[in-house]
Request: fold
Amino acid sequence: MEQTIECLDSLPKAERYQRFLQDYRLLIEGETDVVALLANTAAALHDAFGFFWVGFYVTKDKQWLSLGPFQGPVACTRIKRGRGVCGTAWAEGRTLVVPDVDAFPGHIACSSLSRSEIVVPICLSAERQSQRFFGVLDIDSTRLNDFDDDDRIGLEAVVTVLSKALSPIEH
Reply:
């Protein structure tokens, strides 16, 4: 069955995310394959919002984030915990909004075209003590200051929906 995410360009950003979430829930409903979930999430976000780069880094051996499904130009394949925006978001366990990646200490430049970035950690399980870190959603823009609180709230909501879909799946 073909699923599409409607064009949302004419709506205010916060409303775009609300509408996206409605379509997104339908897109991933019942999917039990991790790669399919991540790939369709990256594609849907890329298409709906026109981001320069959208993708996932998933944990490997509790030391690295390894490149997962993405949309955009080629990317770095491994990121050490605490390095760059993705590794820092993982180490700190919080969303990072970076208005200018060149001003971020230790930024890892996978593309010289990337100017701003948002990274949202993905944790599985609602209970704080039993949370398992899965990886991060990473989104880059070619414009400075392209991400704001609407993006943070909207993308954290997307990750919450995705986390619920990923939690019962064996990884």
User: Anything to note?
Assistant: The chain has one domain: 33-164. The chain has a mean pLDDT of 90. The chain is about 35% helix and 25% strand.
